[in-house]
Amino acid sequence: MATTPAAATQSSRSTGVASPLNAVAQQPHRLVPVKWWAGLGAVILAFIAYVLIKWVTGPFFQRVPTGPTEPPTFMKVAMVFFQAVSIPIGIGLIGWFVVRPIIRQRRLTLDGMLVLAFSTLWFQDPLSAYGGHWFSYNSWAINYGSWVHGVPGWLSNGKPGAMLVEPILIMPGLYVYVFVITMFLGCAVMRRAKAKWPQIGTLGLISVCFAAMVGFDIILEGVIFMPLGIWEYPGGRGFAIFTAVACLRYFRNDRGQTLVERGAENLRMSDRTQMVVRALAVLAGVHVALFLTYNVPNYWIGTHSKEWQRDLVDRSYLTDGLCGQGTDRACPGAGVPLSRNDNSDSGKGSAYITPDGKAVIPPHTKLPTQYPFR
Predict the structure, then answer these.
(1) How many C-beta atoms surround the C-beta of residue 189 within 10 A?
(2) pTM of structure
(3) CB 67 within 8 A of CB 149
(4) What is the reported pLDDT for 347?
Protein backbone atom coordinates (compact mmCIF):
# COMPACT_ATOMS: atom_id res chain seq x y z
CA MET A 1 0.00 0.00 0.00
CA ALA A 2 1.48 3.39 -1.03
CA THR A 3 2.40 5.81 1.73
CA THR A 4 1.15 9.37 1.34
CA PRO A 5 3.45 12.33 2.14
CA ALA A 6 1.31 13.11 5.20
CA ALA A 7 1.56 9.52 6.43
CA ALA A 8 5.30 9.48 5.90
CA THR A 9 5.64 12.67 7.92
CA GLN A 10 3.44 11.26 10.74
CA SER A 11 5.40 7.99 10.71
CA SER A 12 8.71 9.80 11.02
CA ARG A 13 7.42 11.78 13.97
CA SER A 14 6.39 8.58 15.82
CA THR A 15 9.50 6.53 15.07
CA GLY A 16 12.07 9.35 15.26
CA VAL A 17 13.46 8.41 11.81
CA ALA A 18 13.54 11.22 9.23
CA SER A 19 11.80 10.40 5.95
CA PRO A 20 13.30 11.52 2.62
CA LEU A 21 10.55 14.13 2.34
CA ASN A 22 11.41 15.51 5.76
CA ALA A 23 15.12 15.54 4.90
CA VAL A 24 14.42 17.69 1.84
CA ALA A 25 12.11 20.00 3.78
CA GLN A 26 14.62 20.43 6.59
CA GLN A 27 17.59 21.27 4.36
CA PRO A 28 18.82 24.81 5.05
CA HIS A 29 18.27 27.40 2.34
CA ARG A 30 21.35 27.43 0.12
CA LEU A 31 23.01 30.65 -0.90
CA VAL A 32 23.23 30.67 -4.70
CA PRO A 33 26.08 33.02 -5.72
CA VAL A 34 25.09 33.01 -9.38
CA LYS A 35 21.79 34.74 -8.54
CA TRP A 36 23.56 37.59 -6.77
CA TRP A 37 26.06 38.00 -9.57
CA ALA A 38 23.25 37.94 -12.15
CA GLY A 39 21.40 40.63 -10.23
CA LEU A 40 24.53 42.75 -10.25
CA GLY A 41 24.88 42.15 -13.99
CA ALA A 42 21.36 43.42 -14.57
CA VAL A 43 22.10 46.53 -12.49
CA ILE A 44 25.29 47.16 -14.50
CA LEU A 45 23.40 46.94 -17.80
CA ALA A 46 20.70 49.29 -16.51
CA PHE A 47 23.36 51.78 -15.37
CA ILE A 48 25.12 51.64 -18.75
CA ALA A 49 21.81 52.29 -20.53
CA TYR A 50 21.01 55.22 -18.21
CA VAL A 51 24.37 56.94 -18.74
CA LEU A 52 24.42 56.41 -22.52
CA ILE A 53 20.87 57.71 -22.95
CA LYS A 54 21.75 60.76 -20.85
CA TRP A 55 24.80 61.29 -23.07
CA VAL A 56 23.11 61.07 -26.48
CA THR A 57 20.17 63.25 -25.37
CA GLY A 58 22.27 65.90 -23.62
CA PRO A 59 24.66 68.73 -24.53
CA PHE A 60 27.84 66.62 -24.29
CA PHE A 61 26.96 64.53 -27.37
CA GLN A 62 29.11 66.77 -29.53
CA ARG A 63 32.26 66.32 -31.57
CA VAL A 64 35.53 67.49 -30.07
CA PRO A 65 37.47 69.14 -32.91
CA THR A 66 41.10 68.43 -33.73
CA GLY A 67 42.22 72.01 -33.09
CA PRO A 68 44.89 73.98 -34.93
CA THR A 69 47.37 71.10 -35.36
CA GLU A 70 46.79 68.16 -37.67
CA PRO A 71 48.05 64.61 -37.05
CA PRO A 72 50.71 63.32 -39.45
CA THR A 73 49.56 61.15 -42.33
CA PHE A 74 50.62 57.85 -40.76
CA MET A 75 48.37 58.56 -37.74
CA LYS A 76 45.42 59.35 -39.99
CA VAL A 77 45.95 56.12 -41.95
CA ALA A 78 46.14 54.11 -38.71
CA MET A 79 42.94 55.66 -37.34
CA VAL A 80 41.06 55.11 -40.59
CA PHE A 81 42.19 51.48 -40.57
CA PHE A 82 41.16 50.74 -36.99
CA GLN A 83 37.87 52.60 -37.41
CA ALA A 84 37.12 50.49 -40.47
CA VAL A 85 37.96 47.06 -39.00
CA SER A 86 37.36 47.19 -35.24
CA ILE A 87 33.57 46.97 -35.04
CA PRO A 88 33.27 44.41 -37.91
CA ILE A 89 35.85 42.18 -36.17
CA GLY A 90 33.97 42.53 -32.89
CA ILE A 91 30.68 41.61 -34.56
CA GLY A 92 32.36 38.67 -36.27
CA LEU A 93 33.62 37.34 -32.94
CA ILE A 94 30.13 37.67 -31.44
CA GLY A 95 28.80 35.69 -34.37
CA TRP A 96 31.43 32.96 -33.93
CA PHE A 97 31.31 32.57 -30.15
CA VAL A 98 27.68 33.47 -29.45
CA VAL A 99 25.40 33.02 -32.46
CA ARG A 100 27.08 29.94 -33.93
CA PRO A 101 26.88 27.73 -30.78
CA ILE A 102 23.28 28.80 -30.16
CA ILE A 103 22.31 27.73 -33.68
CA ARG A 104 24.32 24.50 -33.66
CA GLN A 105 24.13 23.38 -30.03
CA ARG A 106 21.10 25.30 -28.75
CA ARG A 107 23.20 26.68 -25.92
CA LEU A 108 25.44 29.58 -24.97
CA THR A 109 28.96 28.50 -24.05
CA LEU A 110 31.15 30.15 -21.42
CA ASP A 111 33.29 31.71 -24.14
CA GLY A 112 30.14 33.12 -25.70
CA MET A 113 29.12 34.63 -22.37
CA LEU A 114 32.58 36.16 -21.98
CA VAL A 115 32.48 37.63 -25.49
CA LEU A 116 29.07 39.18 -24.78
CA ALA A 117 30.52 40.70 -21.62
CA PHE A 118 33.53 42.02 -23.56
CA SER A 119 31.15 43.75 -25.98
CA THR A 120 29.94 45.99 -23.13
CA LEU A 121 33.33 46.69 -21.52
CA TRP A 122 34.04 49.73 -23.69
CA PHE A 123 31.67 51.66 -21.42
CA GLN A 124 34.30 51.47 -18.67
CA ASP A 125 37.12 52.62 -20.93
CA PRO A 126 37.22 56.33 -19.90
CA LEU A 127 36.02 55.95 -16.30
CA SER A 128 39.45 56.02 -14.62
CA ALA A 129 39.57 59.78 -15.36
CA TYR A 130 36.70 60.23 -12.86
CA GLY A 131 38.83 62.33 -10.50
CA GLY A 132 41.41 63.81 -12.86
CA HIS A 133 42.71 63.55 -16.42
CA TRP A 134 45.74 61.34 -17.05
CA PHE A 135 45.23 59.97 -20.59
CA SER A 136 43.88 61.29 -23.87
CA TYR A 137 42.62 59.98 -27.20
CA ASN A 138 43.33 61.43 -30.62
CA SER A 139 40.40 63.72 -31.44
CA TRP A 140 40.99 63.34 -35.20
CA ALA A 141 39.10 60.06 -34.95
CA ILE A 142 35.33 60.19 -35.33
CA ASN A 143 33.99 61.14 -31.93
CA TYR A 144 31.03 62.67 -30.13
CA GLY A 145 32.90 63.50 -26.96
CA SER A 146 32.12 60.76 -24.45
CA TRP A 147 29.53 59.78 -21.85
CA VAL A 148 31.68 60.55 -18.83
CA HIS A 149 29.77 63.66 -17.77
CA GLY A 150 26.64 61.55 -17.47
CA VAL A 151 28.29 59.45 -14.74
CA PRO A 152 26.96 60.62 -11.35
CA GLY A 153 29.52 62.69 -9.44
CA TRP A 154 32.00 63.02 -12.32
CA LEU A 155 34.72 65.48 -11.25
CA SER A 156 37.17 65.96 -14.13
CA ASN A 157 36.77 69.14 -16.15
CA GLY A 158 35.17 69.26 -19.55
CA LYS A 159 32.48 70.99 -21.57
CA PRO A 160 30.67 70.25 -24.84
CA GLY A 161 33.23 70.31 -27.64
CA ALA A 162 36.19 70.27 -25.24
CA MET A 163 36.25 67.11 -23.19
CA LEU A 164 37.62 63.61 -22.88
CA VAL A 165 37.23 61.92 -26.28
CA GLU A 166 36.22 58.32 -26.97
CA PRO A 167 36.91 57.01 -30.51
CA ILE A 168 33.47 55.46 -30.91
CA LEU A 169 34.32 53.40 -34.01
CA ILE A 170 37.46 51.89 -32.47
CA MET A 171 37.03 51.07 -28.80
CA PRO A 172 33.79 48.98 -28.75
CA GLY A 173 35.24 46.48 -31.21
CA LEU A 174 38.77 46.68 -29.84
CA TYR A 175 37.59 45.62 -26.38
CA VAL A 176 36.09 42.48 -27.91
CA TYR A 177 39.02 41.24 -29.98
CA VAL A 178 41.75 42.26 -27.54
CA PHE A 179 40.05 40.53 -24.61
CA VAL A 180 39.36 37.42 -26.71
CA ILE A 181 43.08 37.23 -27.49
CA THR A 182 44.06 37.72 -23.86
CA MET A 183 41.61 35.21 -22.41
CA PHE A 184 43.03 32.47 -24.68
CA LEU A 185 46.62 33.64 -24.24
CA GLY A 186 46.36 33.86 -20.45
CA CYS A 187 44.76 30.43 -20.13
CA ALA A 188 47.36 28.90 -22.47
CA VAL A 189 50.19 30.38 -20.40
CA MET A 190 48.71 29.02 -17.16
CA ARG A 191 48.15 25.55 -18.65
CA ARG A 192 51.74 25.52 -19.87
CA ALA A 193 53.03 26.63 -16.47
CA LYS A 194 50.94 23.98 -14.69
CA ALA A 195 52.27 21.26 -16.96
CA LYS A 196 55.87 22.36 -16.41
CA TRP A 197 55.57 23.01 -12.66
CA PRO A 198 52.77 20.78 -11.28
CA GLN A 199 53.19 22.16 -7.74
CA ILE A 200 53.03 25.80 -8.76
CA GLY A 201 49.73 26.60 -7.01
CA THR A 202 47.08 29.22 -7.67
CA LEU A 203 49.15 32.25 -6.69
CA GLY A 204 52.02 31.10 -8.87
CA LEU A 205 49.73 30.63 -11.87
CA ILE A 206 48.26 34.09 -11.40
CA SER A 207 51.78 35.56 -11.20
CA VAL A 208 52.84 33.82 -14.41
CA CYS A 209 49.68 35.03 -16.14
CA PHE A 210 50.28 38.58 -14.91
CA ALA A 211 53.82 38.58 -16.30
CA ALA A 212 52.56 37.35 -19.67
CA MET A 213 49.78 39.95 -19.74
CA VAL A 214 52.21 42.76 -18.94
CA GLY A 215 54.35 41.65 -21.87
CA PHE A 216 51.32 41.53 -24.14
CA ASP A 217 50.19 44.97 -22.99
CA ILE A 218 53.61 46.47 -23.67
CA ILE A 219 53.43 45.19 -27.25
CA LEU A 220 49.78 46.16 -27.72
CA GLU A 221 50.10 49.72 -26.44
CA GLY A 222 53.80 50.55 -26.46
CA VAL A 223 54.53 49.11 -29.89
CA ILE A 224 51.22 49.47 -31.75
CA PHE A 225 48.57 51.89 -30.51
CA MET A 226 50.55 54.62 -28.76
CA PRO A 227 53.24 55.07 -31.47
CA LEU A 228 50.40 55.24 -33.99
CA GLY A 229 48.88 58.11 -31.99
CA ILE A 230 45.55 56.48 -31.14
CA TRP A 231 45.95 57.37 -27.46
CA GLU A 232 48.56 58.62 -25.01
CA TYR A 233 49.27 58.48 -21.26
CA PRO A 234 50.62 61.96 -20.45
CA GLY A 235 49.74 61.69 -16.76
CA GLY A 236 51.45 58.38 -16.01
CA ARG A 237 51.48 54.75 -17.11
CA GLY A 238 48.35 52.74 -16.34
CA PHE A 239 47.99 49.27 -14.83
CA ALA A 240 47.63 46.05 -16.86
CA ILE A 241 43.99 45.04 -17.27
CA PHE A 242 43.91 41.51 -18.69
CA THR A 243 45.00 39.12 -15.94
CA ALA A 244 41.74 38.99 -13.98
CA VAL A 245 39.61 38.06 -17.00
CA ALA A 246 41.99 35.27 -18.05
CA CYS A 247 41.92 33.92 -14.50
CA LEU A 248 38.12 34.07 -14.40
CA ARG A 249 38.02 31.74 -17.41
CA TYR A 250 40.84 29.45 -16.26
CA PHE A 251 39.89 28.73 -12.65
CA ARG A 252 36.71 26.62 -12.72
CA ASN A 253 35.26 23.99 -10.43
CA ASP A 254 34.58 20.34 -11.28
CA ARG A 255 31.29 21.35 -12.91
CA GLY A 256 33.13 23.69 -15.28
CA GLN A 257 31.73 26.75 -13.51
CA THR A 258 33.59 30.01 -13.06
CA LEU A 259 33.58 31.76 -9.70
CA VAL A 260 30.47 33.77 -10.59
CA GLU A 261 28.45 30.80 -11.86
CA ARG A 262 28.59 28.74 -8.64
CA GLY A 263 25.21 27.37 -7.64
CA ALA A 264 23.72 27.41 -11.14
CA GLU A 265 22.87 23.70 -10.78
CA ASN A 266 20.51 24.59 -7.90
CA LEU A 267 18.41 27.00 -9.93
CA ARG A 268 14.85 25.82 -10.47
CA MET A 269 14.18 27.34 -13.85
CA SER A 270 14.21 26.42 -17.51
CA ASP A 271 17.50 25.87 -19.32
CA ARG A 272 16.98 29.06 -21.32
CA THR A 273 16.37 31.18 -18.23
CA GLN A 274 19.34 29.59 -16.48
CA MET A 275 21.49 30.48 -19.49
CA VAL A 276 20.43 34.14 -19.21
CA VAL A 277 21.18 34.16 -15.47
CA ARG A 278 24.64 32.69 -16.02
CA ALA A 279 25.36 35.18 -18.82
CA LEU A 280 24.40 38.10 -16.56
CA ALA A 281 26.60 36.67 -13.80
CA VAL A 282 29.59 36.36 -16.15
CA LEU A 283 28.99 39.92 -17.37
CA ALA A 284 29.07 41.15 -13.77
CA GLY A 285 32.24 39.18 -13.05
CA VAL A 286 34.04 40.67 -16.06
CA HIS A 287 32.96 44.22 -15.23
CA VAL A 288 33.93 43.90 -11.57
CA ALA A 289 37.30 42.45 -12.57
CA LEU A 290 38.05 45.35 -14.92
CA PHE A 291 36.77 47.96 -12.48
CA LEU A 292 38.82 46.71 -9.53
CA THR A 293 42.05 45.93 -11.40
CA TYR A 294 42.09 48.89 -13.81
CA ASN A 295 39.75 51.77 -13.01
CA VAL A 296 40.26 51.85 -9.26
CA PRO A 297 44.10 51.91 -9.33
CA ASN A 298 44.20 54.25 -12.33
CA TYR A 299 41.81 56.64 -10.58
CA TRP A 300 44.75 57.21 -8.21
CA ILE A 301 46.98 58.06 -11.20
CA GLY A 302 44.36 60.54 -12.43
CA THR A 303 44.25 62.34 -9.11
CA HIS A 304 48.09 62.37 -8.92
CA SER A 305 48.86 63.10 -12.56
CA LYS A 306 52.42 64.04 -13.38
CA GLU A 307 53.05 67.11 -15.52
CA TRP A 308 51.96 66.54 -19.10
CA GLN A 309 55.01 66.55 -21.37
CA ARG A 310 55.52 69.28 -23.95
CA ASP A 311 55.60 66.84 -26.87
CA LEU A 312 51.94 66.10 -26.15
CA VAL A 313 50.55 69.51 -25.14
CA ASP A 314 51.99 70.97 -28.36
CA ARG A 315 49.56 68.74 -30.31
CA SER A 316 45.98 69.97 -30.04
CA TYR A 317 44.62 66.70 -31.41
CA LEU A 318 45.90 64.96 -28.26
CA THR A 319 44.77 67.54 -25.67
CA ASP A 320 41.08 67.36 -26.73
CA GLY A 321 40.50 71.02 -25.76
CA LEU A 322 40.93 70.08 -22.10
CA CYS A 323 44.00 72.15 -21.33
CA GLY A 324 47.04 73.96 -22.65
CA GLN A 325 47.34 76.28 -25.65
CA GLY A 326 44.07 77.70 -26.92
CA THR A 327 42.23 76.92 -23.67
CA ASP A 328 41.78 78.69 -20.34
CA ARG A 329 43.17 75.81 -18.24
CA ALA A 330 46.61 74.60 -17.34
CA CYS A 331 47.27 70.95 -18.06
CA PRO A 332 47.50 68.60 -15.05
CA GLY A 333 50.62 68.48 -12.93
CA ALA A 334 51.82 68.53 -9.35
CA GLY A 335 51.33 72.32 -9.11
CA VAL A 336 47.82 72.34 -10.60
CA PRO A 337 44.84 71.69 -8.29
CA LEU A 338 42.10 69.31 -9.33
CA SER A 339 38.99 71.04 -10.65
CA ARG A 340 35.33 70.12 -10.28
CA ASN A 341 32.28 70.48 -12.54
CA ASP A 342 28.56 70.29 -12.05
CA ASN A 343 28.42 68.32 -15.36
CA SER A 344 25.54 70.35 -16.81
CA ASP A 345 27.34 72.96 -18.97
CA SER A 346 25.99 75.67 -16.67
CA GLY A 347 29.27 77.56 -16.27
CA LYS A 348 29.57 76.48 -12.65
CA GLY A 349 32.46 74.61 -11.12
CA SER A 350 35.49 75.03 -8.94
CA ALA A 351 38.26 77.56 -9.39
CA TYR A 352 41.07 76.54 -11.74
CA ILE A 353 44.49 77.66 -12.97
CA THR A 354 45.02 79.16 -16.43
CA PRO A 355 48.04 78.21 -18.58
CA ASP A 356 49.81 81.41 -17.47
CA GLY A 357 49.28 80.62 -13.78
CA LYS A 358 46.28 82.81 -12.89
CA ALA A 359 43.39 81.61 -10.74
CA VAL A 360 39.91 81.84 -12.25
CA ILE A 361 36.54 81.42 -10.55
CA PRO A 362 33.77 80.55 -13.04
CA PRO A 363 31.19 83.36 -13.24
CA HIS A 364 28.24 81.24 -12.09
CA THR A 365 30.08 79.58 -9.22
CA LYS A 366 28.88 80.47 -5.74
CA LEU A 367 31.66 80.22 -3.19
CA PRO A 368 30.88 79.03 0.35
CA THR A 369 29.70 81.79 2.70
CA GLN A 370 32.30 82.83 5.26
CA TYR A 371 31.34 83.39 8.89
CA PRO A 372 33.42 85.02 11.67
CA PHE A 373 34.63 82.93 14.60
CA ARG A 374 32.47 83.21 17.68
Answers:
(1) 21
(2) 0.87
(3) no
(4) 67
